[in-house]
Write a structure and sequence with these properties.
Elements: E1 2-9, E2 12-19, H1 21-35, H2 51-82, E3 91-94, E4 104-111, E5 125-130, H3 135-148, E6 151-154, E7 166-175, E8 178-191, E9 213-219, E10 233-247, H4 253-258, H5 264-298, H6 305-323, H7 329-338, H8 340-363, H9 370-381, H10 386-398, H11 400-422, E11 424-429, H12 432-444, H13 462-467, H14 473-478, H15 495-504
Length: 535
């Protein structure tokens, strides 16, 4: 193999690699020897077919296989010889006009990871804002839980259904007078105003009472998961069988027993644990963001453009999907486009932070054990149907990239925990409202912090802060509180929340790509229901 470097510019490298015909032919000979014992041909005993006849029978396939293996080996040898650390898979191109029996000329183009001096972890200072899980917080959680577990009681038969009431209905749907699969049902409970059914369905049940028969006319959403119903106009013949009204939930021992617990005290104990986990998650979110800000401010180096574009592509794709679910998609898209440069800068920050955390982890021996990796794979497999889980696990075990993506969030968390241990931490007790405000305050600037930004990182421009919507804090304050790594939902129009979540995730913290072999999850069968939101 002969190699010549043809480009060395920044992080970009390009090489011309020549694989001799002699080397390829030697590989063909090796392959002939490997398959000879299994080749069958009339007139010859098994395993005694002459090599020249094997070549004649399988020459094209053997040559192609030998060339592919030679290319793979040559690229690996090139990486080792030149001590290259590719940022992503190298692009390998075979020169036009190659024919069997000739030398093979390759162009190998790649971007390499930057040489990063081992980041200093001395001098890290963090403030840990803590919130006690007191009785007030526990009772507020129980009340929230009770509100989610709505009970309904039967109303007088003359009661007209209103928003918030529950109706029990039978229904039969049709499109152009023809019934469709899954369009009929009996004794279906619908809470009016819950958004359980497709737009317009529930509103037409307002005012209905027991015994009423109504024709509900709706249009299926364009994104509905059943292909032949997308955008279709449908009619549902609905019979109202019961009207129920919300029943107040009294929080006492009986309420606890309805949940399978011994008493209200036991329920409080359980809820206290949940509240503590949630508050600890908020504390971690705040500390992690401050840690990442310190790392980003202290390190500046070029990052591979292909990694940045890949990261930006993931961010942008998710935001575009959210735009489509806005009340005014066109306006939301225009707002999103105005922030394209900011999100690109966030992608740069995330890649840089991902490389920094990886470098710190390697320098200090942070590892993900085999047991931890197996647990990750098994947890990820649960998102698939039981019959597909085995194929998913096999896919991850065989595909190094998928395994690395699955491993990355846990590795990042372990590096962050390592840095927390090394940092000088001061504690301050605050209220939950103060902690959430502190997290949100970091987001209100809308600024992408980084080396050389020229801004006081504690400054919050009034214009951006004023534009903040009260509901925007919901997405960012939940992320680290969740036991799973699922990203918090966000609406692109809520710019501060969306940017904050994007900023705080280093590029290394990616989910494993779904296995190609694994089937998609089945869509909800009841056509009257909305398509499930993408996770």
């Amino acid at each position: 193999m002969k190699t010549v470097e043809t480009l060395n510019e920044g992080l970009k490298r390009e090489f011309r690699v020549t694989i001799t015909a002699k080397d390829i032919d030697a590989r063909v000979d090796d392959e002939v020897k490997n398959i000879a014992p299994t080749v069958r041909m009339p007139g010859f005993r098994p395993g005694k077919v002459p090599p020249n006849l094997i070549r004649k029978m399988h020459g094209a396939a053997l040559s192609a296989d030998a060339l592919n293996k030679a290319i793979d080996q040559s690229v690996r040898d090139l990486m080792a010889k030149e001590k290259l650390r590719p940022a992503l898979q190298p692009a390998v191109t075979l020169a036009d006009g190659y024919e069997t029996g000739q030398d093979a000329e390759l162009t190998v183009a790649l971007e390499v990871l930057p040489d990063i001096e081992t980041p200093s972890i001395d001098g890290l200072k963090l403030e840990r804002l803590t919130v006690p899980a007191d009785d007030k917080a526990v009772m507020a959680k129980i009340e929230e839980f009770a509100a989610q577990m709505k009970r309904f009681e039967e109303a007088p038969k003359t009661k007209k259904a209103a928003t918030g009431d529950q109706v029990i209905i039978d229904f039969a749907g049709s499109v152009d007078g023809v019934a469709f699969d899954g369009g009929t049902g009996e004794d279906m409970a619908v809470e009016i105003g819950s958004g359980q059914l497709i737009p317009g369905f529930e509103d037409q049940l307002i005012g209905a009472k027991v015994g009423d028969e109504k024709t509900v006319k709706v249009t299926f959403p364009d994104e509905y998961p059943v292909e032949n119903l997308k955008g279709a106009k449908a009619e549902f013949a609905v019979t109202v069988k019961e009207v129920k009204v919300p029943a107040a939930s009294k929080i006492d021992d009986e309420f606890a027993k309805s949940l399978g617990l011994e008493s209200l005290d036991k329920l409080k104990e359980l809820m206290k644990d949940q509240v503590e986990q949630e508050l600890n998650g908020l504390t971690r979110t705040y500390m992690k963001r401050k840690l990442l800000d310190q790392l980003a401010a202290a390190h500046d180096f070029d990052v591979p453009p292909t990694m940045v574009e890949a990261e930006f592509g993931q961010i942008w794709q998710q935001l575009e999907q959210e735009v489509e679910r806005e009340d005014d998609p066109a306006a939301a898209k225009a707002e999103l486009e105005a922030d394209r440069d900011d999100y690109h800068a966030i992608a740069v920050r995330r890649v840089r932070l991902g490389l920094l955390l990886s470098e710190i982890g390697q320098a200090h021996g942070v590892q993900v054990s085999q047991q931890e990796m197996q647990r990750l794979i098994m947890q990820a497999a649960q998102q698939y149907r039981p019959e597909d889980r085995g194929r998913f696990m096999e896919y991850v075990q065989q595909d190094a990239l998928a395994a690395a993506q699955l491993r990355a969030p846990l590795y990042e968390d372990k590096v962050v925990d390592f840095l927390f241990e090394k940092a000088e931490i001061s504690d301050r007790e605050v209220t939950r409202e103060e902690l959430e405000a502190a997290i949100e305050a970091d987001d209100d600037s809308g600024h992408v912090h980084g080396p050389g930004c020229g801004h006081d990182h504690d400054h919050k421009p009034a214009k951006k802060a004023a534009a903040k919507k009260p509901a925007a804090k919901k997405a960012e304050v939940k992320e680290e509180a969740k036991a799973e790594e699922a990203p918090a939902k966000k609406a692109p129009a809520k710019k501060a929340a969306a940017k904050a979540e994007a900023e705080e995730k280093p590029a290394a913290a990616k989910k494993a790509a779904p296995a190609k072999a694994a089937a998609e999850k089945p869509a909800a069968k009841a056509p009257a229901k909305k398509a499930a939101a993408k996770k």
